Amino acid sequence: MADATVESAKRAAAQQAVKDHFDPSATNVGIGSGTTIVYVVEAIKEISTNPAIRFIPTGYQSRQVIVKAGLTPVAFDSLPEDTMFDVAFDGADEVDAELNCIKGGGACLFQEKLVAEKARKFVCVADYRKKQERLLTVWPTIPIEVAPIAVPTVLKGLRTLGSTNPKLRTTLLEKSGPLKTDQDFFIVDAPFKTLLIEADVKAGKGKGDGSDGTWEVNKLSEAIKALTGVLEVGIFSGLNGPDAETIRSTDGVKTVTSGQKPVAVYFGMQDGSVEVRTAK
Ligand SMILES: O=C(CO)[C@H](O)[C@H](O)COP(=O)(O)O
Description:
Blueprint: H1 4-21, E1 28-31, H2 37-47, E2 54-57, H3 60-68, E3 87-90, E4 94-95, E5 101-102, H4 109-118, E6 122-127, E7 142-146, H5 151-161, E8 167-168, E9 186-190, H6 198-202, H7 217-225, E10 230-233, E11 235-236, E12 245-250, E13 253-258, E14 264-268, E15 274-278
Parallel strand pairs: 1-2, 1-3, 3-6, 6-14
Antiparallel strand pairs: 4-5, 5-11, 7-9, 7-10, 8-9, 12-13, 14-15
The structure holds ribulose-5-phosphate.
């Protein structure tokens, strides 16, 4: 049963985030997944005035939320490749002091990442339980979307990286087998020790590259993504906002650096207030 304090915290955070970041004249708005996003859509519906506005969902559940609110969903892959979204809102499972997030508790991380990277502003909304100083403080695992055929090799790779007991996520009715994502892939949940942020590495609290048993958020994300069979990792980090896709040229070799760090995270607190963490 939903906890009334948690639900009103989610609603308060959603109302504030929408008030601060939703422009009623916006054209394209990304809508994430989960239970908190329902309050975001509710708040948008109250002030949306543009009948031509398009809402881009991050999966089946997200599309249903948009449709139920009487708004118009538009498929991500039906938009021209240069389309940028005015803003994208989403929930989060845990957020650290540098605004890195764990996402994928609802198994939608891949499409959530696609949408977040297209947004001029990516804004997360969460309740007080998600506000931590470091990732993997309370939320126990990193969700990873994996090709079914590659599950055993990815599990082995994750153990090599230091994950103690990575597990294939099953449906609630365990006898029905592994949970399938919107891509028909599987989710592996991988526990690691609490992750370092960049400031920790600079302060000498660990190398953060796995060699001394410590991982910094971005480094771990890259190491997991490099395992063959991994479609996406539920760590949202790196660049944010309009910098989310930067083409860099090093010695004539071009690489695209992407990122999905939110520009702001709104936390609904137990006392009814809303705390905001913004990108420095
Ligand atoms: O990443 C997600 C789904 O994959 C969700 O945004 C995340 O799990 C937060 O959900 P909720 O708002 O229900 O706490």
